Amino acid sequence: MTELELVIASSPTDAGIGCWDLHTGAEHLRYRSCSSPSHGLVCVGGRFLASSQLCATKSSSGSILYWSWNKPQVEVKSFPAESISPLVCNNEGTYMAGGGASGDIYLWQVATGKLLKKWHAHYRAVTCLKFNDDQSLLISGSEDGSVRVWSLIMVFDDLLREKARQPYEYSFSEHSLKVTDVVTGYGGANAIVVSASEDRTCKVWSLSRGKLLRNIVFPSVIDAIALDPGEDVFYAGGRDGKIYIAALNAVADPNSNYGLHILGFLSEQSKAITCLALTTDGVLLISGSEDGMVRVWNTKDHNIARIFRHAKGPVNNIVVVRQPSLLSPRGSVNSQGPSVKRHGVSLPPPLEKYANSADDNDYVAVIGPRVNPDRSVEASYISVQTLNNQILELQRQGSSAAAQMEIEKLKLDRSRSIQMIQQWEKKYQNLHEFCVTELLDGEPAGNTA
Question: A Gene Ontology biological process annotation (predicted)?
Answer without folding.
Answer: DNA-templated DNA replication
